[in-house]
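Justification of resources, computational component.

The compute hours requested in this renewal are based largely on the per-chain cost of generating structure records like the one below. Each record pairs the submitted sequence with a full structure-token output. That output is archived, and it is also reused by downstream analysis tasks.
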Amino acid sequence: MSGLPSADVAVVGAGIVGAAIFHELADRGLKVTAVDAHRGGGGTTARCGGVVRAYHDDPVLSDRSLVGWRYFRSFAERTGVDVPFRSCGFLYLPALDRAQYAQAETARIAAAGAPAEWLPPHELTRRFGGLVRGDACGAVWEPDAGYIDADETVRGFLLAGQRKGGRLVEGVTVRGPVRQDGRITGVDTDSGVVRARSVVLATGAWTPSLLTSWGVPHDLWTQAIQVDLRLPAAPVAGHPAYMDDIHDLNGRPHPDAAGIYVGHPTGLRTPGAGHQPLDPQHSARIRAAAARRLRWAGDSRACGGLRAAECYAPDTRARVGPLVGDPALLLATGFSGGGFKMAPWAATEVLRHLTSTTP
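The structure output for this chain reads:
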């Protein structure tokens, strides 16, 4: 007989997305149990930079990120757990043919309450010419964007969710769904069954293989993400978080290490999930791409980094909501590397689906 608690909702996976959902459901009075095979936040989230910003090259994603930007800046007020938000600003350099769109979208998100301004090329050079170089049509500048510690945030969500009545079960592996009359009614784990009216899969890079093993059709895959930590030859003050769509760069400062994280897409699909060793060849590609844009990067030196698998979807809008054919099974995955800042939106979206279908 299982000692695991039954629930209104079983959340499988306690990374940043699962933890945010767990807290949101508990906060709204639902009986929720979160199950994770490891320690919550120990998967891809442990390799996450925790960057929080609003602007995207898709207004739908900007709106979703705005939810996260507001949430993380008031995390203690919303959860009762104090996790500091570190403002460093966010600089976005769009593709050269996207200047007109970027200006309009910058104005739109600024009107929605997230401080943002468009920097034409001369202003970009005046403000950030000591950091960036090369061709640019201008840039989006978000002075109040920044980052928040990923591990502390996950643990904060989980602690707050437990304080509000949720149950967290770590170190338990989900073996498969429990079905009755063809409908999912919970999950079977190596410690027993969690009975639930609804199951949410927030399993990140583990989702494609998990769905395949359950016999559930899907269009998701796992792809490697690598971010290197590079140490400039001389200290770089005031470095913002950044994204460059011309050279495919992204990153943020790491002041504790006096370095800068630099990411560059691998484009490499991978069959497994979890942490992976750094690829030296990709580190060389990161350094070359960074040197074309960041003035300090050419004579910087490597100091480790982060590499993990992430769940990708054919579009960039993720998969959040019930699967066709079984409304009791919901996905919250496929964020293609952008799940951290989207987690608060994903939590409210899952809640919306659950409450709209609950009798």
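The chain is about 30% helix and 30% strand. The chain has a mean pLDDT of 94.
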